[in-house]
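Issue 218. Parser rejects a valid record. Input:
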Amino acid sequence: MGDWYRREIMDPGKQPLLFLLLGFLGAFLFIRFSVRMIRAEVSWWPKNVTPGGLHIHHVVFGVIFMVIGGLGLASPIGGERPWAEIEAAVFGIGTALVLDEFALVLHLRDVYWSEEGRLSVDSVVLGAAVCGLLLLGAAPFGVNDASVDGAPASGWTYATVVVVNSAFALVALSKGKAFTGLLGILVPLVAVIGALRLARPGSPWARARYPEGSHKAQRAHRREEREGWRRRLRVKVYDAIAGKPSQP
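Output the parser choked on:
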């Protein structure tokens, strides 16, 4: 196990990224446990931070952690051990705290326990997935695939690969497939699949290219109904991890 860790993590310089992911996951699980304890009004658990009656959301602390971690990583000691790992973990903690209230920042109002607040959990899951893929060696837009027999490709080859893979990712996003499109930035095959499949009803692609009552519009609605079990499963998993949203 030690040899594997040194070969796959330490030698390629991935240990700071691993610490970032561990800090990210640990901070998200802790803050969700904390807010659920506060929501349940558990007497022995610390309450919200409200100096002078002002509720300071944890996104504020997240921004502070991200600034400290980012500055540390960019500083002269940012590439040295153990500072690289420490600063990366601090940055990961801050990122989790910010993304956990992403919906609040987006709406500029407290939607944490509302249905809109699920967007925060989506962003955390996506962030963890992207970090995990980077840890496994994925590169944005498949630029690693541009090399031939390990030899560096030309600038034009890199540019072509990036443009083509970006186009597939954008098409997938326009079809209402946020996870597929964003993950496709790191795994181009995922973006290709998302770009070739039917668009989700109501997406920009569907509104522009699937006239109401057309064959494709009907197929898209039927498929959306068939795949409803996936959304229900996702909701159950999110409820178990992050808590159920409040009823309107």
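Fixed in the parser; the record now loads. Residues 21 and 92 are 6 Å apart (CA to CA).
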